[in-house]
Structure formats: structure tokens, C-alpha cells
Amino acid sequence: xxxxxxxxxxxxxxxxxxxxxxxxxxxxxxxxxxxxxxxxxxxxxxxxxxxxxxxxxxxxxxxxxxxxxxxxxxxxxxxxxxxxxxxxxxxxxxxxxxxxxxxxxxxxxxxxxxxxxxxxxxxxxxxxxxxxxxxxxxxxxxxxxxxxxxxxx
Length: 153
Description:
mainly alpha
């Protein structure tokens, strides 16, 4: 519309974020990134299992990829989230106990948030708000007449 001001980048990002499981995808990607960073740690505790630690790099890379796919292709979120939780749990064995549990927990939380996200769902109304709406509807001018008519009938 010519009379409407253009939304700024902040409002455009907020609109984009509202149409996808943003926090779930972000947490899954951050969990994979954290695990990849612990793979490069020069600690004596670092553990590599598999062919030269290939699985230790493959699973967190998949976590980052799945997190990005959740953000940019939310229509397939259920498949990505189930795969993400399996990959996150697999990093416990292959990648320094899942990035010393931090990456594992971030990835599992992100995958669960993504699995539970429902698009275009009406926001839930709290008990107080329902009571307030019921009182307002009862105070409406037509409601009193309807009550009197019910009592006399």
C-alpha cells in the first residue's frame, strides 16, 4: 500500500521468525557448533572413537545442517527434528560425551522444541483472561435481556 510505511528490518525479521521454529533450529545448530569446537580442544580428556574420529566430526556437522534446514525449510520440521534428536544422542558416544554434555543438551532441547512447534496456532488464553471475557460478555446490554427471558420462561 502506498500510504503505509515500509517495515524495518527488525519487523521483517520478527515476521520471518514467527513463521518457523526459530529457537529450536537455532539451539540445534548451536549445539552442533559447540560440539565441533570441543573436537578441536587441546585437552587430555578429548576422546576420539571411530575411523580417526570421523564420526566425531560428522554428527555435529549434521546437527548444524539440520538446525539450518529447520530455519530455512520449516515444512519438513518433523523429519529434521527426529533426525536431530537421534544425531544429538549419538554425539554422546562419538564426540567427547556430546561436547561435555552442553552440545548434547542444546541439540536435544532444540530438536524437542522443533518437534513440538505448531504453525498458525492461536495463542492460548489464560484462565484470568477467559474469566474477564466472560464477565464482559455478561455485562453486555443484550445479555441482561436474555437472562430475564430465560428466567421467565
